[in-house]
Amino acid sequence: MSDQGETARPGRHGREFEAFVAGAAGRLLHAATLLTAETEEANPMARRLLAAALARTFARWERLRGDDPYAHTRQELIRRFALTGWRHHRAHGGVLSRLSPQERLIVVVRLYEGVAEEQAAALLGLPVERVRALCTRATATLRSRAPEAAGEGVVPR
User: Fold this and answer.
1) 61: domain CATH number?
2) Is the C or the N end of the chain the one with fewer CB within 10 Å?
3) What pLDDT does 120 receive?
4) Is position 1 within any domain?
């Protein structure tokens, strides 16, 4: 005989996860789109990257009690991109398409997600000085955009 608590648990699990996705998926998809250097209109690689990160979060949902599911999903998104970043070296017309995959990763983590330099370094397994240098180089590249491109898709600080 099945315990009613056991049957109610997957439903609650699913509802909680759905609520999380409803609230966080837009921002996470935007981050993934920035990482892959795709446009908001055409971002299949970003959608696959996010789907894989969300699937991993869902699989660990019960163990995340007390932890921030957004931070966990962001970390998984970053980890997956870092492992496959070389696949995203070609420009796809996105806001950050002029940057290398590693520069995009640093810009998204530091400037879009607002992760502190030391935390970003720990998250990415890089020395703080390397994170600082990559961020400086990437922002200089972004600031040097042609005047006619100014104003299109600014990354918030």
Assistant:
1) 1.20.140.160
2) N
3) 94
4) no
